[in-house]
Specification:
Distance between the termini: 39 Å
Strand order of the largest sheet: 4-10-9-8-7-5-6
Helix content: 40-55%
Oligomer: single chain
Radius of gyration: 22 Å
Bound molecules: 4'-deoxy-4'-aminopyridoxal-5'-phosphate
Strand content: 15-25%
Shape: globular
Structural class: alpha/beta
Number of helices: 15
Order of helices and strands: HHEEEHHEHEHEHEHEHEEHHHHEHEEEH
Length: about 425
């Protein structure tokens, strides 16, 4: 591990340096990390925590951390793919609920933290997935940890796609179950893992992201579900980036793959296309009732404020009854991805509103992102440990509100700067 004194000596620090075990002073790694932060700032790399001053559809006002100037940007870094976080109906409903219910709930869900709005939202989420019931969690992270630790015990087994979200792995580790992983999207590896993991004396859960958050790619549920069944395992999917986006009507990866009704637990977040915050599990009534008493992040954490829930009720009404935003989003996804591919960018196997622009060299990717921001285009930087070391990327999030003019502006800048930084020829 890197300690403060060594940090000043090493030519270039890497994030991975700070994951190794430390010495006697637990805070030494934090002191050493200051050198890494200072190095990024000196290089002009300010990709994290850029303060947003206002947001409206596909645009935002951002304070530039470099010089303090306020910049109007085309927002390619938000997960509010349908623009619902700033939708007038959603914002209005939220404001009205604050007056009636207050700003926070003041209690966990099982005590005074459940309003009639919470009950109604759980009903709507269950109806959206055509299952019996749903449970709300404070965040998607809490939902994954809660569901997994409630279901799995020491002695059970869990089989994960290697690219699953961190919160899934955290839940698995906390549960004490035997952790098996399979190479991302590789069905032969999954079957091998299932052979090793399953047995007559314990339960096995297969978990996959519906949309992989750094790839934008969708899981092959039509192959995963039958394989899990063959070995007697249960299936859980994380629909964080799929809800409202993937599938002919936005009901997610199971809808896309034709396996709706065959997923044992659907987990999702209310923080991405739904535009608010919160997580959920949807499934059978007996499963959801059990989770209400045994999923610790539900039991021990305060519920989502009513103004957020009121906004989300409008969101699920829009998702169920108004296909125009979903159509506009897909028009934009297809246009932008098609044009980026034509320019020669490597966008992987993206099939959602997340389009990665995968490079090989971190310095080139950072250079392009710096120039994009200077020209008013806000996109996110993703590198190791979130993705493999040799696959750093610009993560582009498409929104339904982006106009063709804005997308053309983005494409012109990507072509010019992609060539400048050697990401395309
Ligand atoms: N799962 C996936 C696949 C995600 O991308 C995220 C968000 N980073 C989460 C879970 C956690 O969701 P939340 O932000 O609502 O905690």
């Amino acid at each position: 591990m890197i300690v403060a004194s060594e940090a000043t000596k090493k030519a270039r620090l890497e994030w991975g340096d700070f994951y190794d075990p430390g010495g006697a002073d637990l805070f030494d790694k934090a002191r050493g990390f200051q050198a890494a932060l200072a190095q990024e700032a000196a290089d002009g790399n300010h990709f994290f925590r850029r303060p947003i001053l206002a947001a409206d559809g596909g645009r935002a006002l951002v304070r530039d951390p470099e010089d303090g100037r306020v910049r109007e940007v085309i927002m390619l870094g938000s997960n509010s793919f349908l623009g619902l976080s700033t939708h007038p109906r959603v914002v209005e409903a939220s404001r009205d609920a604050a007056r009636q219910y207050g700003f926070g709930t003041g209690a966990v869900s099982l005590y005074a933290g459940t309003t009639d709005l919470h009950v109604e939202l759980e009903r709507r989420i269950a109806a959206f997935y055509r299952v019996e019931d749903a449970i709300l969690f404070p965040t998607g992270y809490a939902a994954n940890v809660g569901i997994i630790t409630a279901l799995l015990r020491k002695g059970d087994a869990v089989v994960n796609d290697l690219f699953n979200h961190a919160s899934i792995f955290d839940g698995c580790i906390q549960s004490g179950a035997a952790l098996h992983t399979f190479a991302h999207g590789r069905m032969r590896h999954l079957e091998r893992a299932l052979k090793r993991a399953t047995g007559p004396d314990h339960g096995t859960l297969v978990i996959t992201d519906g949309v992989f958050s750094m790839e934008g790619e969708t899981a092959k549920l039509d192959e995963i579900v039958p394989l899990a069944r063959k070995y007697g395992a249960r299936v859980m999917i994380d629909e964080a980036h799929a809800v409202g986006v993937v599938g002919p009507t936005g009901r997610g990866t199971a809808e896309k793959c034709g396996v709706e009704g065959e997923i044992d637990v659907v987990m999702g977040t209310l923080s991405k296309a739904p535009g608010g915050i919160g997580g959920y599990a949807a499934g059978s009534r007996e499963l959801i009732d059990y989770l209400r008493y045994f999923a610790r992040p539900y039991f021990f954490s305060t519920s989502i404020p009513a103004p957020v829930i009121a906004g989300l009720l409008e969101v699920f009404d829009i998702l169920a009854n108004d296909p125009t935003l979903h159509r506009a989003l897909w028009r934009n996804i297809q246009y932008l991805r098609g044009e980026l591919d034509a320019l020669g960018f490597n966008t992987g196997k993206s099939a959602s509103a997340i389009i990665p622009i995968i490079g090989r060299d971190e310095a080139a990717v950072k250079g392009m992102l710096r120039d994009l921001f200077a020209e008013g285009i806000f996109a996110n930087y993703v590198a190791f440990p979130a993705v493999p070391k040799n696959r750093p990327r610009i993560r582009v999030n498409v929104m339904a509100q982006h106009t063709r003019k804005e997308l053309d502006e983005v494409l012109e800048a990507f072509e010019r700067l992609g060539k400048k930084h050697g990401i395309i020829e």
